Amino acid sequence: QNRFLLSSEDGLHLFNTIDESFTKLYDKKVYQLSLISNNQLLVILSGKERMIRIKSVEHLLNHSESPFDSKIPETKNATLFTIEPVSLTLCVAIKNCLCIYKIYSRPQPYSYKHICDLHTTQIVTYLDISILEINNDKERILWYGYSSTFM
Fold first, then answer.
1. Would you kindly state where each structural domain of the chain is located, as residue ranges?
2. String of b and e for 12-28 (b: at least 16 CB within 10 Å)?
3. What is the dihedral of CA 93, 85, 4, 144, to 10 degrees?
4. Nearest by Cα to 71 from 96, 99, 42
5. Which InterPro entries match (predicted)?
6. What is the pLDDT of residues 95-120, one digit of tens each?
7. Is 2.130.10.10 the CATH classification of the domain at 3-145?
């Protein structure tokens, strides 16, 4: 309640508002992060190779290495990602390709399954997944856009 997770080019830091102190939790350059699975998992786009990593929040905050932390090597050179937190559907933009994965929240390490790839005509600059109720059915909708258009 008194702590903030901050990401930057210097890595991931925890800011404590009570004593106004910073603690470095992760030393790779962070481009994007998302907290999922009832705040138990952190999905991070980071490092020189711009790869997706999945980390246990508990282990990260306790400064301990988790044997369950994972990285998804197929996401090398990713530019952005989005995740639907209920179904744990992850979509990663890599150049003009959208790679869709299912993330499993049980530590084994955190495994994932590649579902499909969608190819686009341009490099994707906007990405989101939302759930809409259509005719009493819940549908996951993938929204993506380019720098000058929106799909």
1. 3-145
2. bbbeeeeeeeeeebbeb
3. 30
4. 42
5. CNH_dom
6. 999 999 999 877 666 788 999 999 99
7. yes
